[in-house]
Inverse folding.
């Protein structure tokens, strides 16, 4: 009998905790085990798969690459079980299908309302769950089985090659401001002028923030003052309305907020114009609701 046939769900949870906390004593306590029992189980498990998973040292343990790869799959198994429970609950409520969509906030503002109405009309018995977030978080959740499809601005360099991918079109970004903003009244705005005002920027390590800063580095331009760090496009837009805040925003999102406009800057960079795309697990290709969303998105205007 192979190790995969003997392993239990509790063991997967223990492995995840060991990678996250890197402490045998803490994980043993949380798992209602003694530390010697946990140490013996881990050694037996490593022997059964024929390789070490952790490096032991005086301060605790450090997961090796094999452990991180295994835990990524383990998290996916647990997420799938959570979705199985959710499916049963939805059947009790009269639904016959579930679909979980991950979408970046800027893309959601342009597409999501029409898409949700379309999907409900196509299948009223499908339970739809939406998760908004940055593409790095959504991609990880897709890989681990929490999501069925991701729609967003895809960073080609950071895209997971194991996921199926359909590019749809370019995503031109600009700098948005309230129409009453002092800079909005100018025919042309210099980068130096924007530095006099506070900015709302995406989270520090998000793909969009990295692209934004790389484009500034390439031109030798200073970073603006990030007064608010937020991944929530709707909130960012509402804060910019009636204030002096500046915020990076997709150009076609601006019409959703008539009080905003795109500044006519003397600076732009192709690094900011990412690709709108769809990501999904290859093994899910052919699933009816997945194909329905892919088909609908493919027929929409291919710029955001």
């Amino acid at each position: 009998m192979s190790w995969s046939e003997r392993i239990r769900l509790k063991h997967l949870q223990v492995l995840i905790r060991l990678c996250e906390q890197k402490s045998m004593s803490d994980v043993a306590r949380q798992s209602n085990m003694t530390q010697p029992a946990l140490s013996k189980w881990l050694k037996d498990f490593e022997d059964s798969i024929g390789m070490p998973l952790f490096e032991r040292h005086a301060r605790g343990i450090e997961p090796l690459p094999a452990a991180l790869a295994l835990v990524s799959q383990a998290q996916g198994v647990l997420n799938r079980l959570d979705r199985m429970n959710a499916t049963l609950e939805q059947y009790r409520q009269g639904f016959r299908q579930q679909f979980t969509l991950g979408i970046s906030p800027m893309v959601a503002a342009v597409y999501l309302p029409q898409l949700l109405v379309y999907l409900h009309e196509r299948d009223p018995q499908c339970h739809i769950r939406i998760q908004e977030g940055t593409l790095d978080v959504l991609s990880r959740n897709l890989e681990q089985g929490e999501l069925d499809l991701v729609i967003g601005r895809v960073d080609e360099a950071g895209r997971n090659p194991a996921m199926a991918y359909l590019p749809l079109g370019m995503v031109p970004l600009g700098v948005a401001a309230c129409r009453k903003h002092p800079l909005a009244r100018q025919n042309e705005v210099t980068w130096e002028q924007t530095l006099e005002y506070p900015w709302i920027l995406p989270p520090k390590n998000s793909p969009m923030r990295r692209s934004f800063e790389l484009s500034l580095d390439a031109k030798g331009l200073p970073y603006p003052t990030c007064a608010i760090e937020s991944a929530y496009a709707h909130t960012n837009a509402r804060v910019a309305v009636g204030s002096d805040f500046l915020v990076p925003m997709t150009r076609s999102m601006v019409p959703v907020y008539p009080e905003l406009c795109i500044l006519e800057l003397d600076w732009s960079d192709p690094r900011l114009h990412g690709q709108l795309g769809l990501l999904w697990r290859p093994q899910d290709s052919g699933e009816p609701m997945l194909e329905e969303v892919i088909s609908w998105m493919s027929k929409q205007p291919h710029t955001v």
Remarks:
- The mean pLDDT is 85.
- The chain has three domains: 3-72, 95-170+275-298, 173-272.
- Residues 142 and 176 are 30 Å apart (CA to CA).
- The chain is about 45% helix and 20% strand.
